[in-house]
From TrEMBL:
Polar residues composition-biased segments: 1091-1112
Protein keywords: Actin-binding, ATP-binding, Calmodulin-binding, Coiled coil, Motor protein, Myosin, Nucleotide-binding, Repeat
Region (Actin-binding): 610-632
Domain Dilute: 1173-1459
Limits of the Myosin motor domain: 59-729
Gene Ontology annotations for the cellular component aspect, listed alphabetically: cytoplasm; membrane; myosin complex
Entry's family note: Belongs to the TRAFAC class myosin-kinesin ATPase superfamily. Myosin family. Plant myosin class XI subfamily.
Pfam families hit by this protein: DIL (PF01843), IQ (PF00612), Myosin_head (PF00063), Myosin_N (PF02736)
Protein known as: Myosin-6-like
Organism this protein belongs to: Trapa natans (Water chestnut)
Coiled coil: 888-947, 1015-1084
Region Disordered, annotated ranges: 1091-1119
GO biological process, one term: actin filament organization
Binding, ATP: 153-160
Length: 1515
C-alpha cells in the first residue's frame, strides 16, 4: 500500500461523480483527510484512495498502459479528457475502447484516413477501428492465421456502427475489382438494413437495439482478396414477438408494414398498430427521426440488392401480417369442459385473415390452436385446450413462424453473397450484445450474461497471453503472476448435470413444474456456492455474482421462455400451405416425429451455439473493441462517470486492468523514467551515462524491491510508482524551500537597493532644484539688462527711420517730376515720326498696288493660256499610259490564272501551255502597239515645241514694232477683272484688238521690258516642261525594259515549276515501288518506338500514291540513290546526337544540330517522312536510365530547346481537306521571291515554315517527352528527400541526440546537399531557369505536405521541442533559398507556408494568452479550422511544460468546424495536405524564356562538320 504525504494529489470515491480528485491535507494513520477540487472535505481510508499523476497530459494518452497509475480513476479521467477533445478511441494495450460521440465527426472515416492506416502499426497512428482491422488483416496475410474482431458493449454504445467501419476497411483492403456486378463486401454491408428491420427493436436504452448476435465471416483467398462471406446469428429474442414491455417496441418490420403504402395495407388488411395485440402492449408506436414508411421502402430496396425477388418479398410481409392477425385472436370457454373457441366475430375475422395469408384452411388453423392430438400406441386422442392453453399455442405458433422467417432471410442473404469453400482463412467480426444489468432480468438477460461470461473468459485468457508475451519480449521474470479466472461462474450456469441450465431443462420436462419449484430446486442445490445467493425479499429470485457485478434474475417466465415445442399440428398445418414460400419454411418432419409435439430447450440449444462460436474464436487470433455509451440521454458532449465506469466493468476493461495490476502495471521507457525521476539522483545524470544504467542507479538509490528491468522499459509493481512519486515530491519540497529562501533573500536585497537608489535620487533632485533656482535668478538679471539695451536701441532706431523716410520722400518726388517731363517729350517726338512714316508708306503703297494689279492680270492671262495647252497634252498622254497599265494588269492576272491552273489540273497541261503561248503573243503585239503610240506621242511633243517657239518669235517681233510712249497710265482695272472672271481661253492679239479704243493704253519702254522678262520666264517654264517630258520618256522605257525582263523570268520560272513537278511525280513513283519494304521497316520500328501514333499517322495508303507506268530505269536509279543517301544522312545524324556532345554558348549542340538538319532537309514541309520516328526513338531510348539525374538533365535541356525552336518555326497550314493552300501573290511578287538570295532564309536561325502533319505530330510527341523527363527529375528528388523528411519532423531523444557520430541536423544537411546537387546538375546542363524553378517549387510543395501531415498525424510530434527542431531546419532551408538566385528558385520558399505557420504556433511560449482572432488572422491565416483544431488538441510538451491554448479557443474552432460542415459539403475533406504531380508549365512558358538571337553563335557538332553531306551546317 502506498504512503501519502501532505500535499499529495489523490483520487477518492464519490457517490455522484464516481471518483473525484483532491489534495491530502491531514494524515492520521490510515485515516486521510482530503480537500477535493469540488470543495468537499472528505475523510477516507488509505486503502480506498488512489494516487493521481500530476504530470498526466491534459489531453490524455492514446494507450492507457502508458499511464503512470493504471487504476479505475486514472482510466476514467483519461477517457473523459479524450472524449472532450473528440478523441473517442483509446487503446488499452491491443484493446480498443470506443466512446460513442452521438454525432458525426468529420474527416474520421474517409478514404484518406484509410490510406494513412494502411500498413501502419498500432502505435504509429492514433487509435482507430481501422488500425484494429489493418492489424488483423496483416496478421492474416503474414502469419496465415484466421482472425476475429469481437465488438461488444451495451445497447446504444455503437457496436453496429463500429462493425460497419470494420467492414468498410476490410472491403477497402481486400475488395475485388469494380468491374464485377456486386462485390461480396458490398452485399454484406447492404444486408444490414434487412437484418435490422427484422432483428432490431426499440429498448429502454437504444432506439435501434440488435436483439440477436451476429458473427460475420469474411473469407479471403491466397492473394488476400475477399472471396466469400457468411453471416451467423445467435439467440434471436423470440419472446419479443408476443411480449413487449413499456416503453419498448416490437421488431421494426411490424410497424413498417402498418405504415406501408395503402395498397399493401389493404392487401394485408392492416391499419393502425394500436389495434394489434402484439404491438399495443406498449404505448410507444413511433420513434423520433425514424419514418416507418420510408424505412419500409428502403427495406424493400435493400431486399432487391441482396437477391430477394419481389415474390419472396411479398411472401415475407404476408407472413409478418399473418403474425399480427394471429395476435388478435382471443379465446373463450367452449361448451365442453377445458375447451376453447374464438371469443367473438373479431377473432373469427382475424382467424380467417390469418388463414388467407398463410394460405391454409381456416378450420384447420382454428383446430391447431384449440386442440392437441395425443398419439398412443393403439390410437390417437384429440384433446381440447382451455383458453389459456390456446393463447399459449397461438403465441407459440407466432414465435415459431417468425423465428423460421428470420432464419430463412439469413440463409437467403448467405446464399446470395456466396461462400468460398476453398478459402484458406477468414476474418470474423462479432457484433453481439453486451452485459446487461437492468431493473428486471429474465431468461434473455440470463443467456446474454452467460455469453458475456464465456467471452470474458476468452478475453481474460487473451489479455493474460498478451501480458506473457510482453514480459517474454522484455525478458523479465513473470512466473509468480496469478491468472484471474471465472470458470466457477460458468460451471454454476452450464455444468452437467448440476448446472442452472440443466435444472431448468429438467423442470421444463415435468408438466407440473412451476417457477416456484424451479427456484426452490436452485436454492437447495447451490446454497453453499460462493457465486450464488438468494435475495432476502423474494422467494423466487436468485442472484449470481458475475465478473461485472451481482445480477438478480426473476424466474417467473424462465420455464415458458425456455420451452420450444415443435407442435405437430402447427407443422402439419403450414407444411400443407398453398403458398410455396410458407411451405418451404415448414418442411415435412421425419416420420417418427410428425405425430407428436417434441420438447426442445432454448437454453441448451443456445449453449451449443455459444460453444460453436467459442470454438471458432479459439481457432482464430482475437482482437477486441469495447464500445462505451457515455450517457443514457443519447446526446453528445455529455460524459456520465458512473455510467461509463459501470460499462467498463461490464465490458471487462477493469478486469483486464486487474490482470495488468497483478503483474507490472506501471511500464516506463528508459527515457521517460530517467526524465521523470532524474531529480532523485542528479549526480547519475550529470555523469553522462546511458539511460539504462541511469535507471538502474535511480532504482537502487530509492531501495525499491521486486521491480524488473526489461530491454526497453522499466516495470514496476502496483504502488511502487506512488512511492517513487512520494520520494520525488519530498525532493521537490526541499528544493522548493531552498528556492523560497533564496528568493526571499533576493527580494529583501532588491528592496534595500531600491530604497538606497531612491534616497540618492531624491538628494540629487533636491540639489538640482536649488541649483536651478539660483540659475533662474541669474538668468532673469541678465535678461533685464538685455531688455534695457534693446529698448534704448529701439528708440534710437525709430527716430532715425523717421528722418530717413522724410529725406527719401522728398528726393523721390523731385526725381519723379523730372522723369515725367522727359517721358512726355519723348512720346511727342515718336508720335510725329510715326505719323510721317505712315503717310509716306500709304503714298508708296497706293502706287505699288496699282502697278502690281496690272502686272498680275497680264501674267494670269498668259499663264492660263499656256497651262491649258499643256494640260490637254498631259491628259492625252495620261490616257495612253492608263491603257498601257491596264494591259499590264491584264497580263499579270492571266499569268497568275495560268499558274494556278497548272498546279490544280495536270491533265490540261498541254492546253494551258498553248493558251499561255497565245496569250504571250497577244501581249507582245500589245507591247508593239504601245511602242507605236509612244512614238506618236513623241512626234506630238516635238510639234508642240515648234509651235511654242514660233509663237515666241512672233511675240518678240510684235514687241519690237511697237512705238515708244511717254506716259504709263494704269491698266483698265475693270477690263482686267472681266478677263480674269470670264477665264478667256485665248488671250492673244485679237482679243486685245477687240477692246474699246478709248480704253487701250499706250505701252511705254518700261512696260516692254516687263513683258520681255515675263516672256523669258515662260521660255524657262517651257524648257522645264520639256525636260520633265524627256525624263518621263526615259522612265517609261526603263519600266518597259524591266517588264519585259520580268516576263521572261516568269516564263523561265514556270518552266522550272514544270520540271520540278515532273521530278516530284517520278519520286512518288519510286516511293510506290519501295512501299512494301518501307512498310516492313516501319513495323519493325513500331515495336521499338516510344510512340506508335506518329508512325501510324505517317503510314501511306497505296491508293494515295500516283503511279506512272512509263517510268524509266535512269530515273528509278537516281531516285533510289537519293533515298539511300538521305537515309544514310539520317543514320549518321542519329548516331551523332545519341551520344552527349555538350553545349556551345550555353546552348545544347544536339538540339541545334537536329533543328538545322531538319530545316535544311525541309522535313517540316514533307507530307511523309520517317526522320521524326528515328528522332523519337532516340529520345525514348534515353528514358531507360531514369535514375541518372545528370543524364536526364542533359536530355531535358536538349528536348526543351528543340521544342522551343519547333514552336517558333512551325505553322499549321493544312485545310479541312488535308491539302496545303498557297497564298495568292502577283507575278511581280513571285518573281521577286525567285530572285531572292538562297541564304536569306537562314538569316535568322529560327525560321518560319509551313508545317505538315508529321512535323506537328512530332512537336506534340516531343512536348510529351519534355513533360516525362521533367517528372522523372522531380520524382527522383522527391524519392531522395523522402528518406530524410521522415526523420526531420521529430527531434532525436536520449543517447541519439547526444551522439557525436550523428549530428542533430544531419538530416536537414542531407536535404540541403541533395538540393545543391540537383541545382548544380541543372545549371551545368543549362536547363531553362523556368523549368528549374518549377521543379524546386513542386519539391518544396512536397516537403510542406510531408512535414505538415507528419506533424498532425503523430501526437508526439506536436510539442514545443519538436517545433524548435523543425524551425531550425526550416531556417536552414531559408538560408539555402536566399543563397540561390530567384531565377532558379522562384517562389519555392512561399510553398512552405503551412509548415512554417504550424511550427511558428508550436514554439510560442504563452499559448494560453493567444485568442481565437490572433490564431486565425495573424499566426495561422492559411490553416483551416480542422487543421488548427487538430494542432491545438494534440499539442503537448513534457520537457518545457508549455501550456496549450485555452478551452475557449478550442470551442471557437469547434463552432467554426460545425458551421463549415453545415454550410457546405466538406465532410469528406481531410485536414491533411495532398501532394500534386501535375505538369506546371506549358509550351508557351518555354517559348517566352528564349530569344532567337541567342542561337547565332552556337556551333554544330564537330563530327557532323567532317562529313561533306553536312557542310550546310557551316552556314
Amino acid at each position: 500500500m502506498a504512503t501519502y504525504a501532505i500535499g499529495s494529489l489523490v483520487w477518492v470515491e464519490d457517490p455522484e461523480e464516481a471518483w473525484i480528485d483532491g489534495e491530502v491535507v491531514v494524515v492520521e494513520g490510515d485515516g486521510i483527510k482530503i480537500n477535493c477540487t469540488s470543495g468537499k472535505l472528505v475523510v477516507a481510508n488509505a486503502s480506498n484512495i488512489y494516487p493521481k499523476d500530476p504530470e498526466a497530459p491534459e489531453c490524455g494518452v492514446d494507450d492507457m498502459t502508458r499511464l503512470a497509475y493504471l487504476h479505475e480513476p486514472g482510466v476514467l479521467e483519461n477517457l473523459r479528457h479524450r472524449y472532450e477533445i473528440n478523441e473517442i478511441y483509446t487503446y488499452t494495450g491491443n484493446i480498443l475502447i470506443a466512446v460513442n460521440p452521438f454525432r458525426r465527426i468529420p474527416n474520421l472515416y474517409d478514404i484518406q484516413v484509410m490510406k494513412q492506416y494502411k500498413g501502419a502499426s498500432l502505435s504509429d497512428l492514433s487509435p482507430h477501428p481501422f488500425a484494429i482491422a489493418d492489424s488483423a488483416y496483416r496478421q492474416m496475410i503474414t502469419e496465415g492465421i484466421s482472425q476475429a474482431i469481437l465488438v461488444s458493449g451495451e445497447s446504444g454504445a455503437g457496436k453496429t456502427e463500429s462493425t460497419k467501419m470494420l467492414m468498410m476497411y476490410l472491403a477497402f483492403m481486400g475488395g475485388r475489382a469494380a468491374s464485377e456486378a456486386r462485390t461480396v463486401e458490398q452485399q454484406v454491408l447492404e444486408s444490414n438494413p434487412v437484418l435490422e428491420a427484422f432483428g432490431n427493436a426499440k429498448t429502454v436504452r437504444n432506439n435501434n437495439s440488435s436483439r440477436f448476435g451476429k458473427f460475420v465471416e469474411i473469407q479471403f483467398d491466397q492473394r488476400g482478396r475477399i472471396s466469400g462471406a457468411a453471416i451467423r446469428t445467435y439467440l434471436l429474442e423470440r419472446s419479443r414477438v408476443c411480449q413487449v414491455s413499456d416503453p419498448e417496441r416490437n421488431y421494426h418490420c411490424f410497424y413498417m408494414l402498418c405504415a406501408a403504402p395503402s395498397d399493401d395495407v389493404e392487401r394485408y388488411k392492416l391499419g393502425d398498430p394500436r389495434k394489434f395485440h402484439y404491438l399495443n402492449q406498449s404505448n410507444c408506436f413511433e420513434l423520433d427521426a425514424f419514418d416507418d414508411r420510408k424505412e419500409y421502402l428502403a427495406t424493400r430496396k435493400a431486399m432487391d440488392i441482396v437477391g430477394i425477388n419481389s415474390d419472396d418479398q411479398d411472401a415475407i410481409f404476408q407472413v409478418v401480417a399473418a403474425i399480427l392477425h394471429l395476435g388478435n385472436i382471443q379465446f373463450a370457454k367452449g361448451e365442453e369442459p377445458d375447451s376453447s373457441i374464438p371469443k367473438d366475430d373479431e377473432s373469427h375475422f382475424h382467424i380467417k385473415t390469418a388463414a388467407e395469408l398463410f394460405m391454409c384452411d381456416e378450420k384447420a388453423l382454428e383446430d391447431s390452436l384449440c386442440k392437441r392430438v395425443m398419439v398412443t400406441r393403439d390410437e390417437s386422442i384429440t384433446k381440447t385446450l382451455n383458453p389459456e392453453a390456446a393463447a399459449i399455442s397461438r403465441d407459440t405458433l407466432a414465435k415459431v413462424v417468425y423465428s423460421r422467417l428470420f432464419d430463412w432471410i439469413v440463409n437467403k442473404i448467405n446464399s446470395s453473397i456466396g461462400q468460398d469453400s476453398h478459402s484458406k482463412f477468414l476474418i470474423g467480426v462479432l457484433d453481439i450484445y453486451g452485459f446487461e444489468s437492468l431493473m428486471i432480468h429474465s431468461f434473455e438477460q440470463f443467456c446474454i450474461n452467460l455469453t458475456n461470461e464465456k467471452l470474458q473468459q476468452h478475453f481474460n485468457q487473451h489479455v493474460f497471453k498478451m501480458e506473457q508475451e510482453e514480459y517474454t519480449r522484455e525478458e523479465i521474470d513473470w512466473s509468480y503472476i496469478e491468472f484471474i479466472d471465472n470458470q466457477d461462474v460458468l460451471d454454476l450456469i452450464e455444468k452437467k448435470p448440476g448446472g442452472i441450465i440443466a435444472l431448468l431443462d429438467e423442470a421444463c420436462m415435468f408438466p407440473r413444474s412451476t417457477h416456484e419449484t424451479f427456484a426452490e430446486k436452485l436454492y437447495q442445490t447451490f446454497k453453499d456456492h460462493k457465486r450464488f445467493s438468494k435475495p432476502k425479499l423474494s422467494r423466487t429470485d436468485f442472484t449470481i455474482c458475475h465478473y461485472a457485478g451481482d445480477v438478480t434474475y426473476q424466474t417467473e417466465l424462465f420455464l415458458d421462455k425456455n420451452k420450444d415445442y415443435d407442435v405437430a399440428e402447427h407443422q402439419a398445418l403450414l407444411s400443407e400451405s398453398r403458398c410455396s414460400f410458407i411451405k418451404d419454411l415448414f418442411p415435412p418432419p421425419p416420420e417418427e416425429s410428425s405425430k407428436t409435439s417434441k420438447f426442445s430447450s432454448i437454453g441448451s440449444r443456445f449453449k451449443q451455439q455459444l460453444q460453436s462460436l467459442l470454438e471458432t474464436l479459439s481457432a482464430t487470433e482475437p482482437h477486441y473493441i469495447r464500445c462505451v455509451k457515455p450517457n443514457n440521454l443519447l446526446k453528445p458532449s455529455i460524459f456520465d462517470n458512473n455510467n461509463v465506469l459501470q460499462q467498463l466493468r461490464c465490458g471487462g476493461v477493469m478486469e483486464a486492468i486487474r490482470i495488468s495490476c497483478a503483474g507490472y502495471p506501471t511500464r516506463k521507457t528508459f527515457d521517460e523514467f530517467a526524465n521523470r525521476f532524474r531529480i532523485l539522483a542528479p549526480d547519475v545524470i550529470h555523469e553522462g551515462t546511458n539511460e539504462v544504467i541511469a535507471c538502474k542507479k535511480i532504482l537502487e538509490k530509492t531501495n525499491l524491491q521486486h521491480y524488473q528491468i526489461g530491454k526497453t522499459k522499466v516495470f514496476l509493481r502496483a504502488g511502487q510508482m506512488a512511492e517513487m512519486d512520494a520520494l520525488r515530491n519530498e525532493v521537490l519540497g526541499r528544493s522548493a524551500i531552498k528556492i523560497q529562501s533564496k528568493y526571499r533573500s533576493y527580494y529583501t536585497r532588491r528592496g534595500f537597493k531600491l530604497m538606497q537608489q531612491s534616497a540618492i535620487q531624491i538628494q540629487a533632485v533636491c540639489r538640482g532644484e536649488v541649483t536651478r533656482s539660483r540659475y533662474e535668478m541669474m538668468r532673469m538679471e541678465a535678461a533685464c539688462l538685455k531688455i534695457q539695451n534693446m529698448w534704448r536701441m529701439c528708440l534710437a532706431k525709430e527716430a532715425y527711420k523717421i528722418l530717413c523716410h522724410s529725406a527719401i520722400c522728398i528726393q523721390a518726388g523731385f526725381c519723379g517730376m523730372v522723369s515725367r517731363n522727359d517721358l512726355q517729350y519723348r512720346k511727342n517726338t515718336r508720335a510725329a515720326i510715326i505719323i510721317q512714316s505712315y503717310s509716306r508708306k500709304y503714298i508708296a503703297q497706293q502706287h505699288y498696288m496699282r502697278l502690281r494689279e496690272t502686272a498680275i492680270a497680264m501674267q494670269c492671262a498668259c499663264r492660263r493660256e499656256v497651262t491649258l495647252r499643256d494640260f490637254r497634252k498631259l491628259k492625252l498622254a495620261a490616257k495612253e499610259t492608263g491603257a498601257l497599265q491596264a494591259a499590264k494588269t491584264t497580263l499579270e492576272k492571266q499569268v497568275e490564272e495560268l499558274t494556278n491552273h497548272l498546279q490544280l489540273e495536270r491533265q490540261m497541261k498541254a492546253e494551258l501551255e498553248e493558251a499561255k503561248t497565245k496569250e504571250i503573243t497577244k501581249l507582245q503585239s500589245d507591247l508593239q502597239e504601245t511602242k507605236a503610240q509612244l512614238a506618236e506621242t513623241k512626234t506630238m511633243l516635238e510639234e508642240t515645241k515648234a509651235m511654242l517657239l514660233s509663237e515666241h518669235e512672233t511675240g518678240k517681233i510684235g514687241g519690237e514694232q511697237t512705238p515708244p510712249v511717254k506716259e504709263v497710265p494704269g491698266v483698265n482695272q475693270e477690263m482686267t477683272n472681266k478677263l480674269t472672271a470670264e477665264n478667256v481661253p485665248d488671250f492673244n492679239q485679237e482679243m486685245m484688238s477687240k477692246l474699246p479704243a478709248e480704253n487701250i493704253p499706250i505701252i511705254s519702254q518700261e512696260m516692254m521690258c516687263t513683258l520681255t522678262a515675263e516672256n523669258e520666264n515662260l521660255k524657262a517654264l517651257v524648257d522645264s516642261l520639256e525636260k520633265k517630258i524627256d525624263e518621263s520618256e526615259k522612265k517609261y522605257e526603263e519600266l518597259n525594259n524591266l517588264s519585259e525582263e520580268r516576263l521572261q523570268q516568269a516564263m523561265v520560272a514556270e518552266s522550272m515549276i514544270i520540271e520540278l513537278k515532273t521530278a516530284n511525280q517520278r519520286l512518288e513513283e519510286k516511293l510506290s515501288d519501295i512501299e512494301v519494304e518501307e512498310h516492313v521497316l516501319r513495323q519493325q520500328l513500331l515495336t521499338n518506338a516510344p510512340s506508335k501514333k506518329m508512325s501510324e499517322s505517317l503510314s501511306m495508303d497505296k491508293s494515295q500514291i500516283p503511279k506512272n507506268p512509263n517510268k524509266t530505269l535512269d530515273s528509278d536509279s537516281i531516285k533510289r540513290r537519293s533515298i539511300e543517301k538521305q537515309q544514310e544522312n539520317v543514320d549518321y545524324l542519329v548516331k551523332c546526337v545519341s551520344q552527349p556532345i555538350g553545349f556551345s554558348e550555353e546552348k545544347p549542340v544536339a538540339a541545334f544540330t537536329i533543328y538545322k538538319c531538319l530545316l535544311h532537309w525541309k522535313s517540316f514541309e514533307a507530307e511523309k517522312t520517317n526522320v521524326f520516328d528515328r528522332l523519337i526513338q532516340v529520345v525514348g531510348a534515353q528514358l531507360e536510365k531514369p535514375e541518372d539525374s545528370e543524364h536526364m538533365a542533359y536530355w531535358l535541356s536538349n528536348t526543351s530547346t528543340l521544342l522551343f525552336m519547333l514552336q517558333r518555326s512551325l505553322k499549321a497550314t493544312c485545310t479541312s481537306s488535308g491539302t496545303p493552300t498557297k497564298k495568292q501573290t502577283s507575278i511581280f511578287e513571285r518573281m521577286t521571291q525567285s530572285f531572292r538570295s538562297p541564304s536569306s532564309a537562314n538569316f535568322d536561325v529560327v525560321a518560319q515554315v509551313d508545317a505538315k502533319y508529321p512535323a506537328l505530330l512530332f512537336r506534340q510527341q516531343l512536348t510529351a517527352y519534355v513533360e516525362t523527363i521533367y517528372g522523372i527529375i522531380r520524382d527522383n528528388l522527391k524519392n531522395e528527400l523522402s528518406s530524410f523528411l521522415s526523420s526531420c519532423v521529430q527531434q532525436p531523444s536520449g543517447s541519439e541526440a547526444n551522439s557525436t557520430d550523428v549530428p542533430s541536423d544531419s538530416h536537414w544537411n542531407s536535404i540541403i546537399k541533395s538540393l545543391n546537387g540537383l541545382l548544380s546538375i541543372l545549371k551545368n546542363n543549362h536547363v531553362l531557369p523556368v523549368l528549374v524553378a518549377k521543379i524546386f517549387t513542386q519539391v518544396f510543395q512536397y516537403i510542406n505536405a510531408h512535414l505538415f501531415n507528419s506533424l498532425l498525424l503523430h501526437q508526439e510530434n506536436c510539442t514545443f521541442s519538436n517545433g524548435e527542431y523543425v524551425k531550425a531546419g526550416l531556417d536552414t532551408l531559408e538560408t539555402w533559398c536566399n543563397e540561390a538566385t530567384d531565377e532558379y528558385i522562384g517562389t519555392s520558399w512561399d510553398e512552405l507556408k503551412h509548415i512554417r505557420q504550424a511550427v511558428g504556433f508550436l514554439i510560442i511560449h504563452q499559448k494560453s494568452r493567444i485568442t481565437y482572432d490572433d490564431i486565425t488572422n495573424d499566426l495561422c491565416p492559411v490553416l483551416t479550422a480542422q487543421q488548427l483544431h487538430r494542432i491545438c488538441t494534440v499539442y503537448g510538451d513534457d520537457n518545457y511544460e508549455t501550456p496549450g491554448v485555452t478551452p475557449d479557443v478550442i470551442s471557437s474552432l469547434q463552432v467554426l468546424m460545425s458551421a463549415s460542415s453545415n454550410d457546405s459539403d466538406e465532410d469528406n475533406k481531410s485536414f491533411l495536405l495532398e501532394d500534386t504531380s501535375s505538369i506546371p508549365f506549358s509550351v508557351e512558358d518555354i517559348s517566352s524564356s528564349f530569344h532567337s538571337g541567342n542561337f547565332s553563335a552556337v556551333k554544330p557538332a564537330a563530327d557532323l562538320l567532317q562529313n561533306p553531306e553536312f557542310q550546310f551546317l557551316h552556314d
